[in-house]
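WARN retry 2 of 3 for item q-0093 after timeout on previous attempt; input resubmitted unchanged.
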Amino acid sequence: MALIDESVWQGRLAALPLANYGAGETVFAEGTKTGRLLILKSGAVSIIKGGTEIAKVAEPGAVFGELSALLDQPHTADVRALKASEFHVADAALLLRDPAALLYVTMVLARRMEVANQAFLELKRQLAAGEPPSLIDATIDKIEALLSAIGTGYLRAGAGFGGYPFA
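OK item q-0093 returned
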């Protein structure tokens, strides 16, 4: 049984206003508070934390600003358009008014945690096996990216370690 009716969710997205960003434009700036959720319709973005790119996301349906909205805190990373990108725009209060939106974001966050947990277990296995530092560093980078970026790919059944939706 699907918790979210895809046609209902797509209808809700279609009713939201759109925002366009050109290549190189900042979508969210780390440390700012916008009160907005953005859902990628098309394009690609880079997620930059503390001046270091930690992920690229190009999957339609990826959500940005959810942690800021849910925790009522500033954005924790810069999000910059890598190419012309279009987003559905919602105010953070949508999560209070629309159970489908809240459930969608909750499911994406839960999937992200599940995949990050799998990656953490892989890291522990690598450490116990004495794997080379380069492999361990790569796994740590993957965990950081998993915990920092979000996409609808996490909702697909069977998405496992390494199956995160980055371009």
